Structure formats: structure tokens, C-alpha cells
């Protein structure tokens, strides 16, 4: 039995901020008998509890694994620096929140990355757990560390620190890994850690960096990445869970004890996106589109709310209004929960009037959250470059519809630093914001309307058409944002109604280093971490200077520097660090789309038009799966706050 470290941890908690986040015992948490399990997983989202607990990916895997009778899964999150200091002083190791067991005692330590800025927190957790930082130094006594999530589609910067990485959907992958570990342990762990990793690698869908060598050219570019053993595949493929209706998770969502960033029952209504926005890694790597049926969504919402007691339902996906049954889904759920305190929400939506109809349905219970639209680019020209097709007229019309229907607050999201961008492209954001306020005032006859302009820095990501693009320097981005702020406030009467929120260019540049880095960047991550880097995704903890200094100390030995990874444009024939990791997308197609972007050519959505040969469907033997199924959530028994009732779906 792996003993609980709770007796050593508890006396430290009164000395730290938000001690409740380390206590565990949430509704939905599972604690199983250590000795009854044959395979034991520690699952981590490498950020604070308040960000990590709501993470959908970790919650789904936690539930999928714990449903197996001989498997146990517990959660761990990044500890804040105040507790880290105390843990080091008192010899308390990295622990799980479920049963406060030391992470080092588990068989598999799975870490889900949705951003590269979580890499330093991974090192803290490994070190606090008492596991050697470098995968090469680990023994059979250490867990196998497996990275997953969107930021694991290029795991090369952390190749020194993780034993393996899984590309793509996790539901079936964790079951396959569990089966391999179970069998290897049952045989008496033959061949030790190396044999286990080899068995994982042979699946062709688990990437084990130690079995691949990277050769470099004299100018610093990669010459090739090749397996160093005969029985390891040249390319590793992503996992795709095709039938989402067969995986209706989470059924028992975790209900947090401490305040978290999202407190709602989130149901993913479809996976994948085919709109083809060229900056969007999530849309590219999650192809093809796979919809959940309206009946499964209805059941999940009913069960999730009954179990959790949440009052808000989030209908999540990369573009929720694109679900083929979204209208019926929203009106059905709105009917279902009319007169209750349950509210429905969609994440940021596309700019079209249809979404206002949806928003009307969603706010029937009286709660009007702000509407968020993401035009992404300020000018028509730059929107063609990034393939985000929305005209200024569409945007104004949509926002005016929102204002006339009673909304008072609209948020517009843009990016700065996009390929080919000029000052003029960014300044058009001010014109757009001014027009939004003018049109809103004239349509409503009221001055009481607001719009917030929110700006993020563009980061080129692997497996997208922009993976070859040069980044803009932080001072250029900061200069453009200063000009934009002046332009917004140039008209005092309009400027007063416009909020302006932005991220400066520095964190984006570092995210760019990590997103397109190769194995040499691992030394930079380690140096930053040794110099105190923690929680780099939090502006109050992030230090640009620390990263610049570490890059300057480490990279010249390899003949490269920070600019080489960030502000340099790649050419067509360069071997990219992730070329041996197959997201299903054809590299030639991505290159052609990059050329199309430079000539401002727009690509349609292949969900409704013929195939463009991106490569995903044939290479993975899959296809786009969309409805409509022709079913409704009806007949419904409306609810008056007492119990929730949804009829069982008719059998297929």
C-alpha cells in the first residue's frame, strides 16, 4: 500500500494561500484501494488547481480509467511556489489530491498540455516527485511519464524529460497503454523500463523520443530524424476517437471545492473543425469533424446536471454554431430547462446573425452573459490571409442585432502579429470598434452600450499552414498596440464605450520558441526552471528576461539563437522538428495553403463542399461525420426545478 503523505502535508497547509486546493474529496472524485489495482495512473494538468480542475481532457481520462476494476487513476496539479518551498523544506513529495499518494509510486504519470508555457511546471512536478529530471536517468522504480494534449503534437522541446507522448484523442489511447502495462507487469516486467517503452512504441501511436536520433546540418537546421532501433516505426500516428456517442464523458464531472476558472457542466458537442483558419492548430490537428448526436448531448446534460448540481451548461467545440443540429439542440435544451435556474452558454461564436438567434434561446432564463465574436483580423485583407471569412458589414449587422435584442456588452477578439500584417491592418480594428458603437447607439437610441476589444499575440504552431511563418518582434507588436489604443481613444465619445485588453508581444515570442522548438530547446527550458521559472502562463510569474538570458546562455553552443527559432521564416524543404509525427495532414497541402495565404486566397469549408485533399480522411481511413440525425430532444417533459426528465433516445 502506497502510504498517504497527508500527515506530513496537513501541518503545512495553514501557511499557504488557498489551502483548500490541495485537500481533495470533491464531488466526483474517486479513491480506490491501492493494492487492488494492477495499473495505477497519476494524471496531471500542469497548472494551478483553479485552471486544471475544470480541464475536460483530464476529467474524461480520469473517469475512463477509474471505470476499469483493476485500474486506479488520481489527479495532481502544479503547486504554488509558497507550498513548493515548504514541501522542499519538509521533504514532502509531489502528491495526488485524491488520496495524497506520492506521484513517484504510480506506474504511469500522464501530463496533459494545452499550452507550451506549462513545460516549466512539468519540471517542478517531476523534481518534487523525486523522479530524475532526465528520462535517460530513470530506473524501473520510476513511473513512465507520458505527455498528451494539443501541445504534445510537437513534444521535441520536452523530449529529454518525458518518456513518451501520445498524439490526438486520449480515450482509447489510455486504455491501450493500460493494457500494455498490465500485460508487461503480469509477465514479471521483462526487460525492464526499456522493454515497456518498446512495446508502447510498437503500437505506432505512442512516440518514445529515446528511440529516435536527430541529426543536424552545419547551419543548425535538422537533417533528419531516424529511429535508432529496427523495430520502431519511422512515423508515429495520431489517435482519433471516431464515435463520440460511444464515449459520453464526463458522466460524473468534478465539482471543485475552491473557486475555479469555469464552474459549469461542459459537454463537447463535436470534435474537429474544417473551417480552415490557417493560424488555428486545434482546428487542423483535430480533423475530421465528428458530431455527438442531439440525443446523446441531451442525456449527458441531464445526467451531468443531476450529478453535479451545476447551474450552467457549456456546449463546447471549436465552432459550436456549426453543429448540424445546433438550432434544435439549443431550443430543445432551452425548453427543457425553462423556468429553472439552469443557463446555457456557447464559447466564442462566429459572426453571423444565426448566432444571435441561438443566443436568444440560450438567455431565455434571464441570464445574459456577454457575447464574444472573433473576427481575428482587423482588415478584410488580413482576414483573407488567415482564412477567417467575415466582412465588416456582417460584423456590424450581427452586433447591432445583439444590441437591439437587449445585449449591452459585446467582446471582439483579434490577433496581432499575423503574417504579412502592417500597422494599417491593426488600425482598422479601431474603425471597426467605432462603427460598432455608432451603429449600436443609433439602432437602440441608447448610449448604454459597450464593446471590448481583446487582442492576443499570434504564435505560429506546428501542423498548421503558418508553421513556416516568421514571428513579429515584440517591440513591433507593442508599437502597433500603442497606435491602436491611441486610435480607439482619438474620438472621446466613442472611445469611452470601448474597453481595450491586450497581451504584449513578449510572452508570445517565448511561446513561439517552445511551440516550434526542437530537442535543443530542452536545455533552455531546464535553465529557465533552474533560475526559478514557474507558472509561465501567468503574467505575474512570467519573466521575459529570464527566458532571453537562458536562450543566450544555452543556444549559441548549438549555433542557433532565440531569433533563429522565432523571427526566422522556414523554407519549403526544411525538415521541421515534428515532421516524423503524423497529424494526418499532408505537408504539401499545408505548404500550398501557406502559399494561398500569401496570395490572399480563401479556402472554403470542406464540410459542405468537395474535399480539398488535406490528407486526413484517406490517411486515417476516416471521414467527416455530421448529422442531422433527424431526431429532436422532444417529446419533452418541461421541468419546474424539481427533477430533470429526458426521454430515453430511441434505439438506432
Automatic annotation (TrEMBL):
Domain Radical SAM core intervals: 259-501
Protein name (Swiss-Prot/TrEMBL): Radical SAM family uncharacterized protein
SUPFAM superfamilies named among the record's database cross-references: Radical SAM enzymes
Entry GO MF terms: catalytic activity; iron-sulfur cluster binding
Cross-referenced InterPro entries: CHP03960_rSAM, Elp3/MiaA/NifB-like_rSAM, Radical_SAM_N2, rSAM, rSAM_horseshoe, rSAM_sf
Entry superkingdom: Bacteria
Coiled coil: none
UniProt xrefs under PROSITE patterns: RADICAL_SAM
SMART domains: Elp3
Amino acid at each position: 500500500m502506497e502510504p498517504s503523505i497527508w500527515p506530513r502535508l496537513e501541518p503545512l497547509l495553514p501557511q499557504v494561500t488557498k489551502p483548500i486546493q490541495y485537500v481533495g474529496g470533491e464531488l466526483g472524485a474517486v479513491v480506490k484501494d491501492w493494492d487492488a489495482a494492477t495499473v495505477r495512473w497519476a494524471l496531471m494538468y500542469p497548472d494551478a488547481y483553479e485552471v486544471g480542475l475544470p480541464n475536460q481532457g483530464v476529467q474524461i481520462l480520469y473517469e475512463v480509467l477509474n471505470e476499469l476494476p483493476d485500474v486506479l487513476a488520481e489527479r495532481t496539479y502544479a503547486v504554488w511556489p509558497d507550498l513548493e518551498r515548504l514541501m522542499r523544506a519538509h521533504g514532502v513529495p509531489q502528491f495526488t489530491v485524491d488520496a495524497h499518494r506520492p506521484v513517484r509510486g504510480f506506474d504511469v504519470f500522464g501530463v496533459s498540455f494545452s499550452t507550451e508555457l506549462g513545460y516549466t511546471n512539468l519540471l517542478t512536478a517531476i523534481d518534487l516527485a523525486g523522479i530524475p529530471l532526465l528520462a535517460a536517468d530513470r530506473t524501473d522504480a520510476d513511473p513512465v511519464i507520458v505527455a498528451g494534449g494539443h501541445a504534445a503534437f510537437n513534444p521535441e522541446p520536452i523530449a529529454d524529460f518525458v518518456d513518451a507522448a501520445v498524439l490526438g484523442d486520449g480515450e482509447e489511447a489510455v486504455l491501450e497503454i493500460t493494457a500494455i502495462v498490465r500485460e508487461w507487469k503480469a509477465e514479471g516486467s521483462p526487460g525492464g523500463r526499456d522493454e515497456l517503452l518498446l512495446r508502447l512504441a510498437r503500437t505506432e501511436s505512442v512516440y518514445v523520443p529515446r528511440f529516435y536520433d536527430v541529426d543536424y546540418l552545419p547551419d543548425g537546421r535538422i537533417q533528419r530524424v531516424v529511429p535508432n532501433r529496427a523495430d520502431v516505426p519511422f512515423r508515429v500516428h495520431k489517435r482519433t476517437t471516431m464515435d463520440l456517442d460511444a464515449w459520453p464523458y464526463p458522466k460524473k464531472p468534478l465539482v471543485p471545492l475552491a473557486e475555479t476558472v469555469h464552474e459549469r457542466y461542459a459537454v463537447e458537442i463535436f470534435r474537429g473543425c474544417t473551417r480552415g483558419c490557417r493560424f488555428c492548430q486545434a482546428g487542423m490537428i483535430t480533423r475530421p469533424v465528428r458530431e455527438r448526436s442531439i440525443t446523446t448531448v441531451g442525456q449527458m446534460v441531464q445526467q451531468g446536471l443531476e450529478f453535479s448540481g451545476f447551474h450552467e451548461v457549456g456546449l463546447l467545440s471549436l465552432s459550436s454554431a456549426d453543429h448540424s443540429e445546433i438550432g434544435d439542440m439549443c431550443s430543445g435544451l432551452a425548453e427543457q430547462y425553462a423556468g429553472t435556474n439552469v443557463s446555457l452558454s456557447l464559447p466564442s461564436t462566429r459572426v453571423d446573425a444565426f448566432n444571435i438567434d441561438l443566443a436568444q434561446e440560450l438567455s431565455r432564463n434571464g441570464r445574459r452573459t456577454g457575447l464574444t465574436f472573433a473576427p481575428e483580423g482587423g482588415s478584410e485583407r488580413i482576414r483573407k490571409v488567415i482564412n477567417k471569412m467575415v466582412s465588416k458589414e456582417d460584423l456590424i449587422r450581427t452586433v447591432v442585432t445583439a444590441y437591439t435584442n437587449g445585449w449591452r456588452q459585446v467582446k471582439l477578439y483579434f490577433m496581432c502579429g499575423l503574417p504579412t500584417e502592417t500597422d494599417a491592418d491593426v488600425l482598422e480594428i479601431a474603425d471597426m470598434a467605432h462603427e460598432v458603437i455608432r451603429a449600436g447607439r443609433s439602432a437602440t437610441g441608447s448610449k448604454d452600450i459597450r464593446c471590448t476589444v481583446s487582442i492576443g499575440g499570434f504564435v505560429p504552431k506546428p501542423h498548421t499552414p503558418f508553421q513556416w511563418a516568421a514571428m513579429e518582434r515584440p517591440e513591433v507588436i507593442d508599437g502597433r498596440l500603442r497606435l491602436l489604443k491611441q486610435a480607439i481613444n482619438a474620438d472621446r465619445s466613442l472611445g469611452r464605450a470601448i474597453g481595450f485588453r491586450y497581451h504584449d508581444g513578449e510572452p508570445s515570442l517565448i511561446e513561439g520558441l517552445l511551440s516550434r522548438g526542437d530537442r535543443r530547446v530542452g536545455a533552455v527550458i531546464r535553465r529557465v526552471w533552474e533560475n526559478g521559472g514557474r507558472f509561465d502562463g501567468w503574467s505575474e510569474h512570467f519573466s521575459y528576461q529570464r527566458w532571453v538570458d537562458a536562450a543566450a546562455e544555452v543556444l549559441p553552443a548549438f549555433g542557433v539563437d532565440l531569433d533563429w527559432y522565432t523571427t526566422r521564416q522556414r523554407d519549403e524543404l526544411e525538415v521541421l522538428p515534428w515532421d516524423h509525427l503524423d497529424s494526418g495532414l499532408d505537408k504539401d497541402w499545408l505548404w500550398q495553403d501557406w502559399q494561398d495565404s500569401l496570395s490572399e486566397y480563401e479556402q472554403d469549408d470542406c464540410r459542405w463542399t468537395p474535399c480539398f485533399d488535406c490528407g486526413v480522411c484517406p490517411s486515417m481511413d476516416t471521414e467527416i461525420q455530421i448529422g442531422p440525425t433527424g431526431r429532436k430532444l422532444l417529446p419533452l417533459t418541461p421541468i419546474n426545478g424539481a427533477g430533470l426528465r429526458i426521454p430515453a433516445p430511441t434505439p438506432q
